[in-house]
Amino acid sequence: MRSIHFSLLLLSTFTNECFSQESWKAEVLKQPPPEAVAPEIRSVLGDQGFRILDEQGKTHAEIWLRRAIPSSDKPGEPKGAVQFPFLKEGELLGSLQFATEGHDYRDQSITKGVYTMRYGLQPVNGDHLGVSTYRDYSLLLPASKDRTLVAPARKQLEERSAESAGTSHPAVFIMLMAPEGASKTAASIVRDEEKDTWSVVLPLTLTVKGQSESIVHPVRLVIDGAAQP
C-alpha cells in the first residue's frame, strides 16, 4: 500500500533523485490554518500554507509551518545519528490537514482531519533497527488534543501521537536533511525513482538563540511512498 508520510532526506547522496514538475505538485495556499487548531498554536503558524496535490490533481494534504521555530544553534552537520540537535524534542513544527485518509512511515492509517506536527527522536532500541540511518522524525498529534505550545514530555508526546493512528505506536514521519540547493522561498517536488517516493521541499524558519535574524532552513517531506521492508 502506498502511504503518505513525511521525511527529510539527503538528496545529494542519491543520483536517481531529481526535481520534477510532473505528477505530484505543491502550491501556495492563501488561507489561514483550520479553526480546529487551538488558538495558542494558530497564533504562531503562518497566515498561509502549502497545498499538496496528488497525481490526479486532487488535494491530498495541506501544511501550515510555524512562523519561527526556536533553535538552540545554527543548522550544521549531523551529530552522529541526530541531524537536528538544535531542535528541542517535542517542539512544534506546524500543522497538517489530511484531505483524505493518510498513512505514516509504518503505513499506519491516519484519519482525514487536522493534526499538529512536533519534532521527536526515535528511541535507541532494537525496535527501530533499519528504519532510518538517523533518529530524527516528526510526529502527528490530534489537533483536538494538542492545545498549547509547551513541548510535551517524550512519553506524553508518543502517547498522544499514537492516538492519531489509533494504535499503540506513534504516527511518525522520518526526518532527514533537505536537498542541496533547495529554494528558501518556493515549494518544489522531488521524485526518488529507486525508493518510489514523491517529496515536497518546504522552508522552515528558525529563530536562533542569541541572534536577531531568523534563518530559513529548507526541509524535505515525503508525501507519497511506503517505507521499504
Description:
The chain is 7% helix and 35% strand. It is mainly β and 229 residues long. The protein has one domain. A seven-stranded antiparallel β-sheet has the order 2-3-4-6-9-10-11, with helices on one face. The longest helix is centred in the last third of the chain and has 12 residues, at 154-165. The protein is globular, with a radius of gyration of 16 Å. It starts with 16 loop residues before the first strand and ends in a 5-residue tail after the last strand.
Quick structural gist:
This protein is mainly β and 229 residues long. It has 2 helices and 14 strands, in the order E-E-H-E-E-E-E-E-E-E-E-H-E-E-E-E. The chain has helices spanning 39-42, 154-165, and strands at residues 17-20, 25-29, 49-53, 59-65, 69-71, 92-98, 102-103, 109-110, 113-121, 136-142, 172-174, 188-192, 197-208, 215-224.
Structure keywords:
14 strands; single chain; disordered N terminus; mainly beta; 229 residues; 7-stranded antiparallel β-sheet; 5-stranded mixed β-sheet; 2 helices; globular
**Mean residue pLDDT:** 84
Order of H and E elements: EEHEEEEEEEEHEEEE
Number of separate strands: 14
Compute the number of structural domains.
Answer: 1
Q: Structural class of the secondary structure composition? A: mainly beta
Shape: globular
Fraction of residues in helix: under 10%
Low-confidence stretches: 1-16
| Largest sheet properties | 7 strands, antiparallel
Tell me the number of helical segments per DSSP (H or I, 4 or more residues long). 2
Strand content: 35-45%
- Radius of gyration (CA) equals 16 Å
Please give the order of strands in the largest beta sheet.
2-3-4-6-9-10-11
- Taking the alpha carbons of the first and last residues, their distance comes to 12 Å
